[in-house]
Design goal:
about 325 residues; mainly beta; Immunoglobulin-like; 2 domains; five-stranded antiparallel β-sheet; about 5% helix; globular
Amino acid sequence: MNKLYVLLLLISSTFAFSQSYAPAPGNVGSTAIAKDSSCFVAWATGVQVTRGSVDISTPTLTFATFGQESYALGMAEGDGTSVVSLGDSGIAVVTFDSPITNDAGPDFAIFENGFADDYMEFAHVEVSSDGINFVRFLSHSESPVVVQLDNFMFGDCRMVNNLAGKYRQGFGTPFDLDELSGNPLLDVNAITHVKLIDVIGSISAGIGTTDALGNIINDPFPTPFESCGFDLDAVGVIHQLPLSISEQTISYQLYPNPTNDIIHLVGEIDGEVRFYSLEGKLLYREEVNGNQHNFSLKQLDVPSLIMEVQTYESVWRERIQIVSAH
């Protein structure tokens, strides 16, 4: 989408009647993308979360605690509970095995856990191609700010644009990198990081979060619970840079996956096998040589991890799920 068109649409819509944007899933004109859509080619593989307060309007050191960071990785669950809650003004930064690239239409989508079409908790979305400089998508909210929305009130998803959380659980809100093209701080063809920043939905000046035009964004507030703020389910990639030739052609046999302990790796290797947490922490490494290799993973005490096989010619990665033995 042309950047000038987006800007003009944002400005002109402030003088028009509300409900300027795409409707809820299942309605004509909706841009929602189902979690099992074939358009997704990859999902986030790394995440770092900085939790926010359960109620930023009161002096407290109580922070959101619901969910694990790893719940934001992999395919969207869409079940309402497999999420990580950010809290008021909380932040999540997700990364990928291969950069997101700009192509025709939306390039990635973000999933939240709203239980109904118009029960929404929002987050601003920023992207980076170096992990240092982040550029924000221009958001717009036409939502009335006369009455504060609370946990028992609904908004209207047709009144918001470019805010994650616009669509209910199981449906992703899409983002088009073309809207950010031309920014000198960003390479839209090599996005390595996506940042989500919880929107504080208060309509009180000095507390509430504003859109790109300075309008207060009204979403449920306060939500003084451990699951407060934006609840991140997943980030799905639609357009991605291709893997290197070595990553495309080198493969190994890995089984069983999921496993309750022992994993078997088959393939000629002269190099090193490493195991990382989903947050990128190195858990274990071992030099290997030969065709068949066995590893005990139960001792690593994590529900899932990334196995990385490094040789002189290539790098190969696979996600492994670890389940409890019954």
